[in-house]
Amino acid sequence: MTSDDMSRECVIQAEDVRRSYAGGFEAVSGVSFSVARGELFALLGTNGAGKTSTVELLEGLARPDGGTVRVLGHAPYGDRSQVRPRIGVMLQEGGFPSELSVTETVRMWAGCTSGARPTGEALELVGLGHRARVRVKQLSGGERRRLDLALALLGRPEVLFLDEPTTGLDAEGRRDTWALVRRLQEDGTTVLLTTHYLEEAEALADRLVIMHRGRIVTAGTTAEVTAARPARIRFELPEGVPAARLPLDLRAAAEGPRVEIRTHGLQDTLTELLRWAAESGVRLHGLDARSASLEEAFLDIAQSAAETEEVPVP
Ligand SMILES: Nc1ncnc2c1ncn2[C@@H]1O[C@H](COP(=O)(O)OP(=O)(O)OP(=O)(O)O)[C@@H](O)[C@H]1O
Fold first, then answer.
1. Domain range for residue 240?
2. Could you tell me if 99 and 187 lie in one domain?
3. What is the ipTM of this complex?
């Protein structure tokens, strides 16, 4: 974070938070992070890592069994009446009465929301204006997600909790939602996002954490999280050019004509490769060079976390 970020008001704070379920199973085991005003913070993790269990504490749906959570300076469970009007929550399952039309659903919600946006505006924001009269039961899965989002945005929340906001949306719907989330953030909304789409976190998040089995295993910006992982260069050698002709240190990466090189010095390795190709008059088919993605970092982290947990066979 820059010093400017650090001076910004801390809007969400979790400190050594714990949550257990009946039977004593601890789903959240000492999680700490903070989110500044206007920041988009992503909570990522393996299945069952404890993301939803954590977010529910921030939304005021349950009280932590240990540690503290603060949203806008209040305890979200204990001071619910202070926090609830200022936050928007998009849950994984909206659970609307399916016989109501889209407009009726928004109006019903607006009835219990102070300072609600006009119904038409809320629907236009999420691209559902043309479906206003349709019954909820006739909406597609993606359209229901949009309705969930419209309801979360109805009260112009200062803090928005988005739990898997683009599940079921097609590629265009996903991009539209991303653009909307960016606009809200530009207007100063603080966003806490949980998602399984790492590309989504990469596109939107200022900072993120990755959880596994109730704990945070990595935290930082996307660049920080991916920095330690090698970049990748892929290409295919043309017929008649054996891998043995590649520079010595690049040969080991070849499997037949297909070559995949992993490197911590992308620029130097690429320069060496391209110089060799130019000098040898070799055309590299399908050449693709990229820094490590969040997805690769995530898979690495999940795999190494799982390996350290493996119980040795006696
Ligand atoms: N009501 C409950 N009672 C008992 N255990 C629960 C309950 N809710 C969740 N759990 C357990 O707590 C752990 C964390 O669940 P949680 O839903 O928070 O994970 P998650 O990271 O959101 O998972 P996913 O990515 O799969 O949605 C899981 O092992 C889950 O089975």
1. 230-291
2. yes
3. 0.97
